[in-house]
Amino acid sequence: METRFDKLSVRELADGIKKQKYKCEEVVRFFAKRCEESVKFNAIIEVFDDIFEKARLIDEKISRGEKLGKLAGVPVAIKDNILCKGKKMSCASKFMKDFVSPYSATIVKKLESEDAVIFARTNMDEFAMGGSTENTIYGPCKNAFDEKRVAGGSSGGSAVAVALGLCPVAIGTDTGGSIRQPSSFNGVVGIKPTYGTVSRYGIVAFASSTDQAGPITKTVEDNEFVLSILAGKDEHDMTTIDNDFSKAMVKKKYTVGLCKELVEKIKVLKEYPQFEKAVEKMKQEGFDYVEVSVPHILNSLACYYILTPAEAASNLARFDGVKYTSRSESARTLEDVYVKSRSEGFGKEVQRRIMLGNFVLSSGYFDAYYKKAKSLQQLLKKEFAKAFEKCDCILTPTTPGEAFEIGGKIKDPLAMYLEDLFTVPASIAGIPALSVPYAKGEHGLPLGLQFMGKERSEKVLYDIAKKFGGESYGI
Amino acid sequence: MKVDLEHLEYLSKLKLPESEKEKFEADFVKILDFVDEITKLDLPEEDKKKATPLSELREDEVKEGEFCDTLSNAPKQKDGCFVTPLVVE
Amino acid sequence: MEFDVVIGLEIHAELKTKTKVFCSCKNEFGAKPNANTCPVCTGMPGALPIINKHAVELCIKAGLCFGCTISEYAVMERKNYFYPDLAKAYQISQMVHPICVGGGIKLRSGKFMRLNRIHLEEDAGKLTHISRAVGTLVDYNRGGTPLIEIVTEPDFSTAEEVDEFLKRVRESLVYSGIADCKMEEGGMRCDVNLSLKPKGSKALGTRTEMKNLNSFKSVSRAIEYEIKRQKEILEDGGTIIQETRKWDDAKGKNLSMRTKEQAQDYRYFPDPDILPIAISKSDVAKIKATMPTLPQERRDRYVKVFGLPEYDAAILTSSKYVSDYFEKCTRIFDSPKKISNWIMVDLLKLVKEQEDFVFPIAEEDLCEIIKMVEERVINKTVGLQLMDAVIKSGKKPSALAKEMNLIATISEEQILSLLQKLKAENAKVSEDYKKQPQKVVGFIVGYVMKNTAGKANAELVKSLIEKVF
Q1: How far apart are CA A271 and CA A274, in angstroms?
Q2: pLDDT at position A475
Q3: Would you call A109 a catalytic residue per the annotation?
Q4: Which one of A193, A308, C158, C162 has the minimum C-beta count within 10 Å?
Q5: Cβ partners under 8 Å of residue C340, min gap 6
Q6: Known catalytic residue at A154
Q7: Which B residues 42-71 touch A at CB under 8 Å?
């Protein structure tokens, strides 16, 4: 019987390759085959054509006795907004469908320097805007547990790929919940690290001040292991910080905070009993509980839907039909090149956010919206810092509910935005937030529990999640 | 809330199809009404943010290794340049 | 009707850095199209700007040149607009927290022209408009190269004031190694904001902005033209439209650049990719220590301390090189007037019409020659021959003078005896000398020179003539 490589931890997988228990080529073949069998989920856009060549090189190195990196031979899928030199990258957009990356993202270089095999690119909401992976030219990505339901988004492809065991690790990006929400919907582990922990160089910017990449994995251990590789200050990204979280102190006993402003919102959820049970379980396992206050937390969503479209409007202006995107065939004048290419190239949701961003930045509205939102962001950071004086983490459900049905919210943008209620605060505050599976909802679909911590407290969050245990959702 | 869609299209270099304008505007106004709560908050002015000391900024040294073929995805190019329709100044 | 003219300036200067302001590409003029480009300066997806320390330092230095307050906290912002020369569709510039604030320059008249600010920003790429069939070519080599923008208050009222101000700005930037300011290459650009108001009125009139001013001369001409144009409109009862007008130097007039259908709205906001910059007092002190003495201060010293005429002081400070050369000479040989004469009369003509010249003789050697002449070891003519020989051979003046046998070896006694001989032989000379000495001195000196193969020191001869005759 062939080895179920998808059942191994990332460390075990790399060790097995290094110790020549099996070849990297076998591992790659196994996952490539699984991808082929799962095409209908639309999780993977493309399995890269050089993976077998890469695998052979790794096997050769090992047989020559060379020392290999921590991710020796581990296939890693990347979201379709991360540049890998020589590979296509489209942001799931018609506008970029023929783009070939002329350089590699810092995180891709980091993964490669640890001998990972950059394996495939995953489906996503166009330019990472969306919460369902329905805004994509490759067709909606389907939930790993129910093909009629959404994968979540925007890193839906990455979450579904890991959930289905199409790859041991997938990298996602999270601007307001885009790693955590699909992780929650698909029963996998995802983290949005402290802002600045992972370099953004070579990742297509959505909102520069909240964008963070992070790993999606089956287990908390794998997640911590991979994040420790991705993290680090980068000379190509001024906003990166030295977050050597693996050296952070862990405690024997933790205090968990429940945010009083959110409690009302949580209590009305259909899945409140599950959340209550989780809290009870934690109490039994010796966690202390405390009520904390983040007075403006419920304004985070409004803040988010002002700041991120503003930055996106500016960040996406470079896609103009001149340098690398496709150009409208009917463009005759410069104005045509801009307007026609952008109107034909960008999907609806992206256009909406660009317009929204230009609205809040425009003369006459800037002070009332953008400036106000920036003040609120700073205030929220302070309020969170104060709350974390009393607790080690703040606990919330990751999402208001289970994965919804495909097509269910796509027509109502505001309803879709409200899905981000629990994930957005950590993005706005720049603090780490980890989502782990913990229960099932009324339709038997996985639910995620979110642990938010203070800046650079990833190690603590991982430790709490390990102590909590949670449930595993292997398929 | 009234929205000057035409001005936003101009700033965004986008043109919405006529048939979609009404629905777009309705959704747009709904979102604006939602985020409008922020304008009513009484908030302190934003303080100065964490700054990088001058001494820690990048040294002025040429790094050849960072070049790449910047024209490789150009929709149109000529003589090592990107090409646009003739710009009338 | 009488009008007051109100002029404000926006001056851009390209900074002398090795690399661009937000990436490590070369900052150089004249490379092959897009040869000096990378993901950052072509606005590739995923690319992020990394600010160049030296560019910030040069901006601070510019601020120090003009007495600005240097901000402790500076922020880069995005100015959003679409144009093919702007790869990211936003220019990284500064708005609310510029690096330098205030300052100004005092003109010769004593009038103080205030600066509003000096900020750092990136330049755009270059567009070449070929034809309708081919289109416009875009080259991003210049894209992302560092610029400072010097913004003045509307304190100017004449073209002359603007001209003096611009020249002072340029020489200060060039002296301090901040910028080359070659206007013809676009290394320094000046936009002029101009409006008229009824004489004495407080309220400002509607202003126009003029662009495409590629030389000091065109700035002056354009200002004169625009004053006249606005005056005529106002006198006819018309109104000035707030607009940008492009100067056409060949035609000697400006034309309205197509007014955009919609008002510009640049949607400035702090660039989230670039952290604010903290500038400490010690950073500023360190930069200050590298500042040369500025030309105006030098000119003042040359006139007041060295007693040079204004004109000479101006020529000696026309470039930092000449001024530094002059000053080094004065430290070697304390005779500024003589040195100034040699440089102005004899040295500058050797390098006439050259740009970036270097004098072909070292300061020490020139001073040695001047000293020999002043101490009457040789005369000026021989001194010039010696200078020429030093330049050609590269040898030291003293050694060369001996080698060429140039040093006056004729003793005082020998000269005296020659003079006695002349007096005895030619009575008319004595008579003439008594009547009009200046008329015959030349003749007598010539006589001595002729009989000593030109090796007598002319000054010595002159002083001996007095004794003998």
Answers
A1: 5
A2: 45
A3: no
A4: C158
A5: C302, C306, C308, C312, C316, C326
A6: yes
A7: 43-47, 49, 52, 58, 68-70
pLDDT band at A474 (very low <50, low <70, confident <90, very high): very low
Which of A109, A323, A339, A354 is most worth mutating to test chain C (most C CB atoms within 10 A of its CB)? A323
Question: Which tens digit of pLDDT belongs to each residue from A108-149?
Answer: 999 999 999 999 999 999 999 999 999 999 999 999 999 999
Residue B2 belongs to some domain of the structure:
yes
Residue type, C408: A
Residue A178 is among the residues annotated as catalytic for this protein: yes
Q: Which residue range forms the structural domain that includes residue B17? A: 1-41
Which parts of chain C have pLDDT scores under 70? 258-263, 408-409
Written as six digits, the tokens of C3 are 């009008």
Asked if the model's pLDDT at residue A184 lies above 50, the reply is: yes
Total domains present in chain B = 1
B30–chain A Cβ distance below 8 A for any pair? yes
Residues C253, C218: contact at Cβ < 8 Å?
no
For residue B12, is it within any domain? Answer: yes
Taken in order of first residue, the domains within chain C and their CATH numbers are 3-283 (no CATH), 291-403 (no CATH), 412-468 (1.10.10)
Interchain contact, A318 vs C88, CB within 8 Å: yes
Residue type at position C38: C
Could you tell me the maximum CA-CA distance found in chain A, to the nearest angstrom? Answer: 70
Residue of C nearest to A127 (CA): C45
Query: Given CA atoms C75, C81, C86, C89 in this order, what sign does their dihedral have?
Result: positive
| β-strand partners of C139 | C126
Q: What is the pLDDT of residues A60-74, one digit of tens each?
A: 999 999 999 999 999
Q: Please tell me the distance from the alpha carbon of residue A108 to that of residue B25, in angstroms, as a whole number.
A: 40
Q: Which element (helix H / strand E) includes C298?
A: helix C295-304
Give contacts of C274 with chain A, Cβ < 8 Å: 238
Rounded mean pLDDT of A335-344?
97
Percent of chain A with pLDDT over 70: 99
Domain assignment present for B21: yes
Taking Cα atoms as reference points, which of A180, A204, A182, A200 lies closest to residue A191? A180
In a domain, B28, yes or no: yes
Task: Verify whether the Cβ–Cβ distance B68 to C38 is below 8 Å.
Answer: yes
Nearest to A70 by CA among A21, A13, A5, A8: A13
Task: Write out the E strands in A240-343.
Answer: 255-259, 288-292
Q: Cα–chain-centroid distance for residue C252?
A: 26
Convert the pLDDT of each residue in A292-332 to its tens digit. Answer: 999 999 999 999 999 999 999 999 999 999 999 999 999 99
- Sign of the C-alpha dihedral, residues C35, C39, C42, C48? negative
pTM of the model: 0.91
- Domain residue limits, chain A: 8-475
